[in-house]
Each structure stands twice: as structure tokens, then as C-alpha cells.
Amino acid sequence: MLLKSKFKLATAIGIMLSMLSLLVHLFLANYSAGGITKYSMHMDDVLPFGPRPRPRRLWGPLRKLDHLHPFAKPSKTYAAPSQHNGFIYAKIYGGFEKIQSSICDLVAVARLLNATLVIPEIQATTRAKGISPKFKSFSYLYDEDHFIDALSNDVAIVRGLPKDLREARKKIKFPTVSPRNSATPEYYMTEVLPRLVKSKVIGIIVNGGNCLKSILPANLEEFQKLRCRVAFHALRLRPQIQALGSQIVGRLRASGHPYLAYHPGLLRDTLAFHGCAELFQDIHTELIQSRRNQMIKRGTVKEQLTVDSVSRKMSGLCPLMPEEVGLLLQALGYPPTTIIFLAGSETFGGQRMLIPLRAMFANLVDRTSLCSQKELSDLVGPEDPLTSDLPHPPPPKSEKQLIEEWKRAGPRPRPLPPPPARPFYAHEKEGWYGWIGENDTEPDASPIEFRRQAHRLLWDALDYFVSVEADAFFPGFHNDGSGWPDYSSLIMGHRLYQSPSGITYRPDRKIVAALFEDVSDHRYHPPRNWTIAAREHLNRSAGVEGIVSSATLSRPVSFLAHPLPECSCRTPKSPAVQPVKSSNGRLLFGGEEECPDWMVRSLAMASAKNSEPQNEDYEDELPEDDSSLDTQHESDRSDVNKSSEQGEEMDPDD
Length: 654
Known about the structure:
- The chain is of the alpha/beta class.
- Among the domains are: 70-237, Rossmann fold; 240-266 and 319-378 and 470-556 and 578-641, no CATH class.
- The chain has 24 helices and 16 strands.
- The chain has helices at residues 2-33, 56-59, 96-112, 144-150, 163-170, 185-199, 221-234, 239-252, 268-274, 283-298, 309-314, 322-332, 355-360, 367-370, 373-380, 399-407, 426-429, 447-468, 487-498, 509-518, 528-541, 544-554, 597-614, 627-646, and strands at 68-70, 87-92, 116-118, 121-122, 157-158, 176-177, 201-206, 259-263, 339-342, 364-365, 472-475, 503-504, 568-570, 580-581, 587-589, 593-594.
- Strands 2, 3, 4, 5, 6 and 7 form a 6-stranded parallel β-sheet that branches. The protein has a 5-stranded parallel β-sheet with strand order 10-9-8-11-12.
- α20 packs antiparallel against α21 (528-541).
- The chain is globular, with a radius of gyration of 30 Å.
- Mean pLDDT is 82; it is low at 32-38, 44-51 and 612-654.
């Protein structure tokens, strides 16, 4: 009896201790959580006192480009055209970069034809795509009122056709044209203008993003400045996008450190066009090849389905992988605590492709880690619910139905039923890749996929704003040679116009591929001469040499990727710059006109105000051969390598 009572007492004491331990754990968990946990930057404590140095070599400004300033005003004042030849309405297809470029071209075309431009329709943001009824097509991305007011002296712009013409358009009484890529001004004057004068209304359908030739004759220089005014001043993102973008920039700089923006350029269409499928594995190769097969059937690609992706990469036709970008940033001297903002709505291959870069730079962030879900949903606006495109399980059967099936099942004994098929989980069906496990052909886009495409435009616009404001920018893929405007090139052109002395790298992928081929077996421990060679190439790419070499490729495709010298001016006391011309005699750098007196005075006042406090933030030019920095990085890499060898091997599929 005594033994039983002792046993009960011990049991009660054990239960009480367990309850006490549970309460302590709950209290500690609640105390440590402190509400919603936000992302915090990982900063080292190398220099705990005073302001951190900001090397000019890594963060700018570049002294050789200090004399350039944005200036896109017309050379002489001119009023909007008095002659009115009719209305132009337009439908624009494609992603954010094609939309941005197409709108600039359409404004220039309307000015060329002395026509009134109706606010263009962005097909990916029409109501049929399921976007919020709060927005119209154009206003989903841009500020309509500012767009109309900013161009009031250049082109007459209206929100819609008059009522009678609108009814006639619904009955398809007006002609439409679909200009080929990089159409010439002569095409519009000889083919489009007579039809416009005759019908008073004409529609233009833009698919490739370039409905007007990038390089215009010398007598149309004012049209190039008009393009700059449209792209960099009139096309202002709607206030909600700008406000959230400013908040992201503030959060990135909240620690007092600069940040670098990086756009991987890993897009499925781009990879399929250039034949880079073999650089990926498993399902991603199939997806790229499937899209390439579609491009071959449409006539977009004139080559075979299967090509040598390795030779394409050695020729500079494939993007730089995030791992390679991380190694290049290390060679430049960026510390592991550098804040890197990942731009772009799509990174083909997902987070798995970013594992090596995140291992080298822990502060790799994007909009989802810097914004709450509510902030992003407020940007999208209220939307009507759509049926999910995920497979639905069959409805459960009633007891009566089960009994009837049992009776109709045949004589006994019956064989055991086959085991149930493996269910498809939600994460296997979401996105554009879910069909690959069930079908050989890609299904048509569902309504919810159309809505996702509209959302991607918002994310691209938001990341575009943050990338233009960044202290440095590194493109994973620009000047791809496809003949279409690309996202990274538009950012680089905007930065060249707005802050030409900022750090914007323009790597030659052919040279970079050769550099990595030399250290293919030991790229994480390259010799010192390799680090110096990579650093010298990237530093040159950020300066005048990189601007000129990049312009030879980007200028014929997109004027907005290289808006010099038409949209810049130089200060009178700037050092003499030798003009650089292309093979056909076009200026690529130099030859800018002098800034007007009022602008020179305002620049002098601004520099006088900012000179004193900014001297603390910048160090003198760091030597290109900073042996101590390289030694420190090599020791850091060796320590990381030792620790990784002692631990367990990481599964790449995790």
C-alpha cells in the first residue's frame, strides 16, 4: 500500500514538473518571438566605431563621368503640332521592358505623324486578365495624369476616342497595322500616314517592343530627346509603386550601408531563344526545349531545336549564373556583408539557382523579404476571386452509392483493389511547370495564370525603381543579341542618364566565360593573377571603355539602353573628352552639348551644399592591387571551406 502511494506521488510530481517545463518553454518562445519577425541584415563588427568607409572603387562616383548630367529638354522651344491628322490607338504585348520601350516609340510616332495619341492599352493588364477593377490598363503601372501633362507641349494625348469613333472601332471600321521590328520613319510616312489621313483613326499593334528604329537620322535628333523625356520623365510609375519602392530603398539603406542591385536575367524565353537548355538539369531542360520548339514553329527561332549550349555560353550568348556573379563580386572586393537586392519577377530555376550566391553573400534580399504580404497585396488592389487551377479531388461518395457499387462488383471472393495512385501535391502543380509531369504539350494559360502575368509586371516595375536608385548595379544578362529590348539594358540606360557617374557594371560575357574556363577546376580558389584580371575587366566595364563597348551592341537595338550623347550635357569646366564614334560615324560617347547656365549654377550650389558631409563617406581611390583585401578574402574562403568539410554534405535538392 505504501509502495502504491509513493508511486502515485512520484507520478504527480512528474506531471507537475512537465507542466512547469511546458509553461517555461511557451513563455520563452513568446518572449523571444516578439511579434512578427522581420528580416535583419547580417553586418560584421570589423569597424564598430565611426562611419564605415565607402570605397569609391566599389560604390562610386566615377571621376571620369562626373562631367555628364541629364538634359533632355528640346534645343529650341516648340509647341504641339497644330495640324491634326487623326487618332492613333495602340495595343502593346509583352513584358515590362517591351511596354516601356513601345510607349516611347509610340509617342515619337504620334509626333512624327502629327496625330493625337490615345493612351496605349497594355494587353497584360486589361480587365479580361482579372486585375483589380480599381485600375484601367495603363494606370495599372503608370500615372496617367502626369503622362498627359508632361507631354502636353510635344504630343496631344487623350484617354479615349470620341464616342462616335469608339462605336466605329467596336465594329472594326478602322485599319490596323503591325509594324515590323525597328520600323523606319519612312515606313510610317509612306505606309501609315496616308491611311491615317483617309480614315482619321488607325490602330497600331506592337509585339516586339521596337516599333520605331533605334538610330534615327541626324535631322530627327529632337525625336531622340523626346524619347528620353517620355522614358525618364513622363512615364512615372503610379504613386503606390513609387511609395513602396521608396520604402524598400529606405529599408535597404537603413543600416547606413550602400546596396547593389542584381538582375539575373534567367528568363525562360531568353534561355530558349539562345539555346541554353543544357546549362540546366532535369525538368528545367525540358521546359526550355519545349518553349524553344514553340519559337521554332512560330518562326521566331531559325535554328535547330538542339544546339551546343556550352559553345553558346563561351560565345557570350547565355546568362551569367548567380554563382559566377558571386565569384566576380568577390574578385572586385565586395565584402561578404554586402547588401544585394535581387531584381526581376522571374528567376528560372527558382531559389535553387541562388544557393551559391547566398552562401557567399548572406544579405541577398528581394521584395518579398523586405515587404510584408499586406504591402504587396495593397499594391495589387482588390481582386475578384478566381477558381484555382489546381486539380480538385473527386467528390466523396455517399453510403448508398458505396453499397450499390459493392453489389454490382461481381461474385466473391474478389481480388484486392489496386493501391491508390500517388496524389499530386499543391507545390507540384503550382506555376507554369506543373503540366510537364502529365502532358507532352503545354496547356493554355488559365485565368489565374493571366492574373499572375499582370502581377509580374507590377513586381518588375517595383524592382526597376529600386535598381535605378541602387548604389551599384550588376546585370546577369544584357545585350543578348535577340533584337528586343531587355530588362537589364533599360535599367543601365536609365542609370546612365540619371546618374552617369554611378557604378554600373557592363561585363563582356565572352571574356568572363574565358576567365572561368581557365579556373574551371578551382574557381573557388583562383590564383591571384586571375583575380586581378577579372577585377580589371569589371572596373573597365564600369567606366568609359565599358560604356563604349556596350553601346556598339545596345544602341542599334534600343535607344533607351544608351541615350548618349543626345540626352546629356557636360559642364563647361569639365576636362576635354575625346569623342568616340562607331564604324558608321555615329557618336557613342563625347560630343555632348554644354549645360545651360541656369543648370550650371544649380549644380554648383548643390555641390557646395553636399561637399562637406559627403567627404566623410568616401575614401580615396583604393589601389587595384589590394593584397591585404585579397588575403583576407582568401582566408575567409579557406575557413568556410574547412567548416563545410567538417560538417555534413548538403543535398542540392533541399
